[in-house]
């Protein structure tokens, strides 16, 4: 699979099979992804991969706390989101729940689906990406490039992923479970495994604006 094919095939899976993924495969993906660029070669990422009994234990801890998140580590979205970002976020939510056939008025159904984040959508592997609190936005960008590389390599390996900033809301709990030092924070999680192709939600793809909405060519 070439890079273009991996980019086109990657999507945020929200239903996984229980098929295990070997530690060797996970390590190979994480190590290969470390070729991602970072300013000054700081390599600011710290990654934990959790599976099996350890993952089951963590899920139990989260289930006991679900609905009572920690103090937010950071704002995932700015307050009073403006256009065109507000409409894009609204549309992706409507499309997602539409694919799941959960109407807007079914608040319980939507909350139940959102809570599946806490189960990594059934994935057998949970990844946690953390970063030193003293690093700044450029290093957060570096971490994002590392995560994107992980997702593309997983796609190449026939696996699926779903990046989850959901875990920033349970950052303290996650950090305690992982044994992170106080100067590190959980930036994001990621579900990793074999996508359940029979699940309707995995047939859905989020929209992308046309190039003209965000791009411009000059001097060509």
List keywords for this structure.
4 strands, Nitroreductase family protein, NADH Oxidase, 220 residues, FMN, 8 helices, Nitroreductase, alpha+beta, Nitroreductase-like, oxidoreductase
Please describe what this structure looks like:
The protein has 220 residues and is an alpha+beta fold. It has a single domain (3-70, 77-137, 159-205), classed as NADH Oxidase (3-Layer(aba) Sandwich), CATH 3.40.109.10. The protein has helices spanning 3-9, 23-33, 52-65, 85-99, 107-115, 137-156, 171-178, 211-214, and strands at 46-51, 125-132, 160-164, 184-193. It has a four-stranded antiparallel sheet, with helices on both faces. Helix 1 crosses helix 6 and helix 2 (23-33) packs across helix 6 (137-156). The chain starts with a helix and ends in a 6-residue tail after the last helix. Residues 8-193 form the Nitroreductase domain. This is Nitroreductase family protein.
Shape: globular
Give the averaged pLDDT, no decimals.
Answer: 94
CATH superfamily (homologous) name = NADH Oxidase
Let me know the largest β-sheet: 4 strands, antiparallel
Q: In CATH terms, what is the fold-level topology? A: NADH Oxidase
- Kindly report the spatial arrangement of strands forming the biggest sheet: 1-2-4-3
- State the end-to-end distance: 31 Å
Topology, pairings included?
Layout: H1 3-9, H2 23-33, E1 46-51, H3 52-65, H4 85-99, H5 107-115, E2 125-132, H6 137-156, E3 160-164, H7 171-178, E4 184-193, H8 211-214
Antiparallel strand pairs: 1-2, 2-4, 3-4
Helix pairs in contact: 1-6, 2-6
């Amino acid at each position: 699979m070439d890079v273009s094919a991996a980019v086109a095939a990657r999507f945020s899976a929200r239903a996984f099979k229980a098929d295990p993924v070997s530690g060797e495969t996970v390590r190979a993906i994480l190590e290969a992804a470390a070729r991602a660029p970072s300013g000054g070669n700081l390599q600011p990422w710290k990654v934990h991969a959790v599976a099996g009994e350890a993952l089951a234990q963590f899920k139990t801890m989260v289930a006991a706390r679900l609905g009572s998140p920690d103090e937010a580590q950071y704002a995932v979205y700015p307050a009073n989101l403006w256009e065109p970002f507000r409409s894009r976020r609204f549309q992706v939510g409507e499309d997602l729940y539409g694919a799941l056939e959960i109407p807007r008025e079914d608040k319980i159904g939507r909350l139940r689906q959102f809570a599946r984040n806490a189960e990594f959508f059934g994935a057998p592997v949970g990844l946690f990406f953390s970063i030193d609190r003293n690093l700044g936005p450029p290093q957060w960008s570096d971490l994002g490039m590392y995560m994107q590389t992980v997702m593309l390599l997983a796609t190449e390996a026939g696996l699926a992923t779903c990046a989850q900033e959901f875990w920033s809301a349970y950052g303290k709990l996650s950090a305690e479970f992982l044994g992170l030092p106080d100067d590190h924070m959980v930036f994001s999680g990621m579900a990793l495994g074999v996508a359940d192709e029979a699940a309707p939600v995995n047939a859905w793809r989020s929209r992308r604006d046309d190039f003209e909405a965000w791009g411009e060519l000059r001097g060509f």
